[in-house]
Amino acid sequence: MVNIDMKVFRRHGEIAYTLSRTVAFTGHRPNRIGGYGKNPTADAIYKHIHDFILIGGLMNDFKYNTFISGMALGVDTIAAKAVLDCRDNHNLPVRLIAALPYGAQNSRWPAESTAE
């Protein structure tokens, strides 16, 4: 069993990153959410996650500020993009942890999926 300090992993400015402030994303792969290209289902998933992070963060003093994605194609990568957009384009103090199962995970992805 791993003993984890539940208080603080690290400080970034005045925001404490803790397990109680962490959200992990996983979900369907592209074949279950409209395919590999841009589509209304994937767009709606992105908007929902983005709004959860942006509005929820601003209204709740960044109650959730650490997000984990397994980085599989589909909901995992959609969520990762939403986190990065909130951090980079809205200047929110959030971070993304990419929990890759192995280093060459994207080696089996279709070419259009590796371009982004």
Can you characterise this structure?
- The model is unreliable at 1-15 (pLDDT under 50).
- The chain has a three-stranded parallel β-sheet, with helices on one face.
- It is an alpha/beta fold and 116 residues long.
- It has a single domain (16-104), classed as 3-Layer(aba) Sandwich (Rossmann fold).
- Helix 1 (40-59) packs across helix 2 (75-90).
- The chain has helices at 40-59, 75-90, 111-114; strands spanning 10-12, 15-17, 22-25, 66-69, 95-98.
- It is 34% helix and 16% strand.
Layout of strands and helices, then pairs:
Layout lengths: L9 E3 L2 E3 L4 E4 L14 H20 L6 E4 L5 H16 L4 E4 L12 H4 L2
Parallel strand pairs: 3-4, 4-5
Antiparallel strand pairs: 1-2
SS strand fraction: 15-25%
Q: CATH topology, anyone?
A: Rossmann fold
Morphology: globular
Structural class: alpha/beta
Cross-sheet strand order for the largest sheet: 3-4-5
User: Can you tell me the residue ranges where pLDDT is under 50 for at least 5 consecutive residues?
Assistant: 1-15
The H/E string reads EEEHEHEH
Give the total of domains: 1
Helical stretch tally: 3
Kindly report the average pLDDT value: 78
The Rg value, from CA coordinates, equals 15 Å
How is the main sheet built?
A: 3 strands, parallel
CATH-derived architecture:
3-Layer(aba) Sandwich
Oligomer, anyone?
single chain
Write a short abstract of this structure:
The chain is α/β, with parallel strands linked by helices and 116 residues long. Helix content is 34%, strand content 16%. It has a single domain, classed as Rossmann fold.
